[in-house]
Amino acid sequence: MKCFKAIFPAAVLLLTLSLCGCVNTAINSPQPTIYVAGVNASGIRGSYVATTWANGRTTALTDGMSGSEAYSIAVSGGEVYVSGSMYNATSGTYAATMWKNGVATALPNSRGVNNAEAFGIAVFDSDVYATGYEYPALSTVTTATFWKNGTASVLPNPTGTTQAWAEKIVVANNNVYIAGIAYNPTISAYIATIWENGGTGTALSANASIAYAIAISGSDVYVSGSAYNPATGYYTATIWKNGVASLLPTNHAGNSFVYAIAVSGSDVYAAGYLSDATTGHEVAYSWKNGASTALPADASNDAAASAIAVYGNDVYAAGYEWDATKNNVVACYWKNGATAVEVSDGTVEAWAESIFVQ
User: Fold this and answer.
1) Contact present, 210 and 192 (Cβ < 8 Å)
2) CA 132, 21, 177, 205 torsion: positive or negative?
C-alpha cells in the first residue's frame, strides 16, 4: 500500500514512507546486529512481501500469497517487533499488522472493516505501541490511530476534522509522542502535526507540510519532515526543534524530505532524499547538525534513505539504491556514509523502510 516515494493526491503532497530513527550508545560490542525491515517483491505475481534482514539472514514475514509491507522494526529484550500491513483476501482490505518474532497479529480497526496500516512501532517496558491510520467503514477519510498493546485509539485532528495520519512514535519521560499529518480545510492542505499522550495535536506549520519521524533528547522534541516553501515552489527538508523549524540544505534544486531523525548527545542526525529537479532522479541524503551529505550511489539512477540509527560512534542510514549489475532496486544501508551494503539479493525489487542496530 505504501511506498516511500512521495505522492501528490489532489495536488497536495500527502505521505510517503515511513521512517525510523534509533540510538544505541553502547560501544562494547564490536559486531552489532543490524536489523532492517522493508519490502521484497517476491510474492505471487510479484506482490510485495514484508521482509526483515539481520546480519545476512532474510526472513519473509508472510507466505507471499497476498500483499504485505513492513514499515518499522524495534528490538527489546531479545524480541523483534515489526509494524506494517497485510492484505486480507476475505475482507478485501489491508489490516494494520504487528509481527513479534515473525508471528503476525492483525491490529483491530476501531472504525469498522476497512483499510488500515501501522507505520511506527515502539516498545517501552512491557508495553508495545504502534501508529498508523484507519479508514472507517464505507469511508475514504483516514483517521490517525495508535495502538497500545493491541487497543486502538483515534488521534484527534487539531482542526476538528477527522482526516489525519500518524507516522512514527517515541515513548520517553513517561510520555507518548507521535508525528504525522492532519488535514486543514482552511488552506486545503495537510499540516505537520505532533500529538502528546493522545491529546488534540499541535500543528508545526501554518503551511503545507509533513512530519515523518520524531526523537526526544532530554526535554527537547525533534521532528523531521518537509515543509512547502512558497519562495522556491518546492517542499524543503525540515527539522523542527520544540516547534521551531530549520530548513536543511541540499546540493540540488528540488523537493527534499527528511524521513528519519536520531539524536545522540549533542548531535542531530537525519536521513531522507532529494528529488533532483534537473535530472529527475532521487538522491539519498543524510544530515548531521544541519550539514548535508549525498550518500554514495549511482548518480544516473534513484536512491533514497528512509531510516537512521546511531550505534556508538557509527551512523547507519537505510533505504534503497539501484544496482546496475543486478538491474534492480535493492534494499541497502550506508554505514558512516560509505558505499552501501546491500541486504537484498537483487533478484526482485526490494527496499528498506527501517533500521535498528543493537
Assistant:
1) yes
2) negative
Q: Which residue has the cell 507540510?
A: 209
In three-state secondary structure terms, 255 is coil
272 strand-pairing partners? 258, 285
- pLDDT tens-digit series, residues 256-280: 999 999 999 999 999 999 998 888 8
| CATH (residue range 9-357) | 2.120.10.30
Mind listing the pLDDT tens digit for each residue in 190-235?
Answer: 999 999 999 989 999 999 999 999 999 999 999 999 999 998 899 9
C-beta separation of 162 from 141 below 8 A: yes
What is the pLDDT at residue 250? 85
Q: Indicate the DSSP class of residue 135.
A: P
**Quick one: residue 160, left, alpha or beta (phi over 0 = left, psi -120 to 50 = alpha)?**
left
**Separation of alpha carbons 43 and 171, rounded Å:** 34
Contacts 24+ apart (CB under 8 A), 190-197: 190/12, 190/13, 190/14, 190/15, 190/165, 191/159, 192/223, 192/225, 192/227, 192/238, 192/240, 193/157, 193/158, 193/164, 194/221, 194/223, 195/144, 195/155, 195/166
Q: Which amino acid is at 51?
A: T
